[in-house]
Fold these 2 entries.
Entry 1:
Amino acid sequence: MLNPLLNAASQNYNPTMTQTNEQLFTESQHYIPGGVNSPVRAFKSVGGTPKFMQRGKGAYLWDAEGKRYIDYIGSWGPMIVGHAHAKVVAALQARAALGTSFGTPTELELELAKAICRLMPSIEQVRLVNSGTEATMSSIRLARGYTQRDVIIKFEGCYHGHVDGLLVKAGSGALTFSQPSSAGVPEQIAGNTLVLPYNDIQAIETAFQKYPEQIAAVILEPIAGNMNLLIPSREFLLRLRELCTQLNTVLIFDEVMTGFRVNLHGAQHLFEITPDLTAIGKVIGGGMPLAAFGGKREIMQLLSPVGPVYQAGTLSGNPMAVTAGLKTLELIQQPLFFETLAQTTKNLCDGLIATAKAAGIAFNAQSVGGMFGFYFAEAIPQTLADIQANDHKRFNQFFHSMLAQGVYLAPSSYEAGFVSAAHGETEITATIDAAKIAFAC
């Protein structure tokens, strides 16, 4: 049985395409590897056919067949004010008429840089780039240039883009250097990365004891969102900060996902911990390709053209992306924006938990700011192993039932979800109603 409210197509939208999602996916696989331009979009872990979206407005998406969905992906985080926000669209339209890219400095770049430095005080200088991968890759290069060391520590379950040195899995023994987890990554590059369990204080202490003068940087998501939502202990982050300070290692927070999403000042503000470098993205582009990395002035001053660490990009800071980012940052600074967003997200999680409990389903959920995670397990996970122990088969069934009812969740049990300011009581109630049906399947 489908929820009739959610299953209805929009009364105001008629798709212009004549092909079905199935037809589009079949044809796409002929021209695009796997039929998608980013792997998770292929629905490989949940099965079925991905939806080809044609339009978004507010909290909703419409696919090629005209079906409407409540969207809890939000382009994987950027759409914090909702799709096609009138003020963002108007700003982009006005900007496009003046030119989209110059390959020169612009005043807009300066304005965005000033806004980022003001909102994230740990960032004294910032460099704009085009993607989160560029931001993390450049942060690591900069950290190595600053420390004159080679070794990087990352954590299991944290994803930092498709950087060669970070597409790795743990070595064969405790505290051995890593092995590639992707074809095309040389062992020599992977061999400069240590992979440690997330949220494990003993592991980081042991690593620093074994390699006290070799570690250039530690990079992590201060709140993990790429193994579902996992919130570490403050003690873990605090000990990490202490060790990095003691041994002159650069602490990099990857806030590509959490920056301006969990709090106006990022996860680092919530935990009251200051990283040396921060990578940010998603929200700062307002749906356009834009990211950045920044931090201590003494480190950032090593970047070319003033320093020896090279980094460049033809479209970095292009006017369209910066315009969308500036307008989005303006909107999220409105009074009570984050308080309302956090409460809406919590209401979603509370409703799902209560509904699952009534159905006798082992289930849990949690949220921070506009991010949430849910798990087919009795307890909130603390480690990647806890996430892996979830009932993934049950997740897949739930995902497809919700999708059929017009609720678009991440097509993987290892991804966090996102709520926007456009989501309100109507959308949350409809989602909980759909979950009642899905839990009964």
Entry 2:
Amino acid sequence: MNLGKITVITPPDQLFNLNISYLLINPSQHVSKQFQTILSQTDEDVNVFIYDTNENDIGWLLGVAHQVDIKIVDVDNCTPTTKAFVTFLLAHPNTYYITNDELTPYSLISKNRIYDLDEIVKQILQDEDDDNAED
């Protein structure tokens, strides 16, 4: 089995191609490790855009958010500036979010709350099955 090429992109860089693209927003170490496990199982070329807690280029974040296939937001790890845009990001159907915050009603904006990345793996496998069924 050949693994696909993984391209990691961080601000201010951009990449425009037809590869499946993910945006990780303020991923914790645990989320990053889970995502690495997911990537180790794919044979497709993948773009991984990473916006971490050291970044402050909101323009880049919002621009990239419109072009990627899947966004994963670690809400509890967001900086105050990034957190101001979380609800906007959650309004997109392809955004999944992780939080331990039971008080903020994020579920009114998005039903895509996940507790770990296993649910993303299930979605990827489902998409692959659907693609194979079409062939």
